[in-house]
Amino acid sequence: MRILILPNSMKGSLSARQTARVLSRALEKKHTVKSFPLSDGGDGFIDFFKALHPAARTVRLKAKNAFLKEAATSYLWLPKEKTAVLETARICGLGTAKKEELDALGASSFGVGEVLRHAMKRGAKKIYVGLGGVACNDGGAGIARALGARFLDTRGRELPNGAKPLLHLARIETEALQQHIRGVKIYAVADVTNPLLGPKGSARVFGPQKGATPAQVRTLEKALSVYARAVKKATGKDPARTPSTAAAGALCAGLYGLLDAQIILGADFLRDQLPLDKWAGKADLIITAEGKLDRQTLYGKAPLCVIEAAARAGKPVLFVCGTYEDNALRKLPKNLHLTLVSLADFAKDKQDSIKNAAKYLRRICGEISF
């Protein structure tokens, strides 16, 4: 049997590359297997690009994490194309943060700006920023600050890093920032369609993931509202209701509004980069995976591309996830031949499924009849 394996990351447990490797090794003795790790902009974005461009180089450096502590990080460099590939989760990631470290109002994206500046000094003319999995919610203000922007209050005093100080933002000076980004095209690859503000915005939907209490969520919403107005006044671009500007702690809002980045939805990016229909047409079975199958899966997430390609080709899909929401299942394509398997059906509890995901993936491969 010809099996096509196209997993996203099992967030908090296995990367897309690790998931692909586990599934491939469990199946390749009895089947012909083709596997490729996916990323819709979040975790695994660099691994995805590395699989596309094996000759790309890894550039290692130090930059500030979300809590403004210097830490080791890296980005990908494609010398021939003069292109850099950044993954925000590797710079100010939520996955490596300890619960006691979380500081939704004080955390900053400054380190992402430091990595962007390093890539620009290297000669980058094109930069892809994979958005997702961050511990900050400052709207990308830290990114702009690291590239020379100044965030000032009504008395002309420069504000400190973090989201909360944006409550006192009166104006943004962008002259130095514009010098840094001149001649560089930036692409913000987002894994969600949520706008910056409102009931589906960054603060209300994603703030709690970064440790925000209900009161802090309200503060974040107010701060980002002030920030959005200041961005519009400084650049003419309004991130408030623009789709996907909530991505990665609203870092997408700053990239779009202040760095003139082009927003690309992760699902669209994957469709452009990979011949999914061709691969699906040659497969007898398609396997995809994600940590959680929910409503967000159907808005810009990598498995959506896989599911749609399988439906077009009329091929069966095995979807492996950690957990799932019943509501999401009702919105899947009607002509899809789907088998859904959750690690929760095998594990003792959530922590067991996260810790021993590889073991349960191998068990699933051994127990399901293809």
Strand content: 15-25%
How many individual helices?
Answer: 15
Radius of gyration: 21 Å
Shape: globular
Mean pLDDT, nearest integer?
A: 93
Q: List low-pLDDT spans.
A: none
Helix content: 25-40%
- Topology as a string of helices (H) and strands (E): EHEHEEEHHEHEEHEHHHEHHEHEHEHH
How is the biggest beta sheet arranged?
6 strands, mixed
Give the N-to-C terminal Cα separation. Answer: 8 Å
Class of secondary structure makeup: alpha/beta
Strand order of the largest sheet: 3-4-5-6-9-10
Blueprint of the fold:
Layout: E1 2-5, H1 16-27, E2 32-35, H2 45-52, E3 57-64, E4 70-78, E5 83-87, H3 88-92, H4 110-121, E6 126-130, H5 141-146, E7 150-152, E8 171-173, H6 175-181, E9 185-190, H7 202-206, H8 214-235, H9 247-259, E10 262-265, H10 266-273, H11 276-282, E11 285-293, H12 302-313, E12 317-324, H13 326-329, E13 338-342, H14 350-355, H15 357-367
Parallel strand pairs: 1-2, 1-11, 5-6, 6-9, 9-10, 11-12, 12-13
Antiparallel strand pairs: 3-4, 4-5, 7-8
Helix pairs in contact: 1-15, 8-9, 10-12, 11-12
What are its keywords?
single chain; 370 residues; alpha/beta; six-stranded mixed sheet; five-stranded parallel sheet; 13 strands; 20% strand
Entry summary:
With 370 residues, this protein is α/β, with parallel strands linked by helices.
Describe this structure in words.
The protein is α/β, with parallel strands linked by helices and 370 residues long. It is built from 15 helices and 13 strands. The strands form 3 sheets. Strands 3-4-5-6-9-10 form a 6-stranded mixed sheet, with helices on both faces. Helix 13 (326-329) links the parallel strand 12 and strand 13. Helix 1 (16-27) packs parallel to helix 15 (357-367) and helix 11 crosses helix 12 (302-313). The chain starts with a strand and ends with a helix. The mean pLDDT is 93.
